[in-house]
Amino acid sequence: MKHAFLMILFVIAGSAFSIAQTTVVPTDSKPASTTIAGADYPRVDAERRVIFHFRAPGAQSVSVSLGNIALTKSEDGFWNGTTQPQDPGFHYYTLKIDGVDVADPSSESFFGMGKMASAVEIPEQGVDFYDVKDVPHGAVSSKYYFSNVTKSWRRLFVYTPPGYDNINSKEKFPVVFIQHGGGEDERGWTVQGRTDIILDNLISEGKARPMIVVISNGNVSAGKAGAGYSSAGMAAFKEEMVNNIVPFIDKNYRTLATADNRALCGLSMGGGQSFYTGLESLQCFASVGVFSSGIFGGIKSPNGKTFDAEQEIPGLLSRSQSFNEKLKLFYISVGEQDPRFEYTKTAVKKFQASGLHVEFASFPGNHEWQVWRKSLHDFASRVFK
Question: What is the pTM of this model?
Fold first, then answer.
């Protein structure tokens, strides 16, 4: 299968399709950080436009999903094009060559749209909290555990803070369990989200308490009843998190194994999982973070109903004080250009009007990693205080 894919990729439309190398490049641009080593393109210029240039002499049409631009072909068989200025952040894209969607061989590939896809990173001026710096660094390890829910071996990633591996250390740490969105898995927060770099920088600046971060696969199916954003729909994930993942981490890491020292958060689908599992499991988690979730609206509801907080989590509005007593942090964030924005603000206002303590934040951007990186950065700086 791998060889067949490469055949399609490099011999599409009956011609060679290769990574472009050229000595004539725009002087105000440079290869994106997501462009593979040794390739000149894709490039990003000073106006945040993405420049494409590659050779596919036999192709009849080429376009890029990033802005849906059509590329033009030069006499030497190279296809060229420049997008409109892009918002800062991380953007997936695919090439369409003679009607076939393929990954760009000169870009790194990432799992994020329910498939492996190319992506380009657009720098944001003055923002460096997710850049590698000369600070003490923690470590990310890959671990496998057996799930009694799915009856299978599953993988998760664990970030441990600087100094954790000191052989003489007996220090214990609080834990954040962070979830990805739909069409993603445990690789999302590990790679695209830059979780370890964000935590390294925050901890070094004294803006966050040293903590362990667990990044697990939230795609859990065990034949449970219900679907979508509902307590029943989240039942399998809740069982997996509370009965499998948390005990595994407490057994294998030096954790402060109390609710006050555990947080559950996530983006989009993972935000919905955190909302239900966190608020329904306050004996396990005293902090809950919901990033850019469609649970409050802004997406087509699978059951066609309007979000009703009291119905979804009984007592959340009518007995808000009882939740306040157990929650150290209830945090909600969303992108300001996200279709979920107004719905989220409305929900937060209703929560706060009922007396529920909610910390709300919004960031420029749509439903994208730049917003989620900022959400993690903000959440981690507030939790476990």
Answer: 0.90
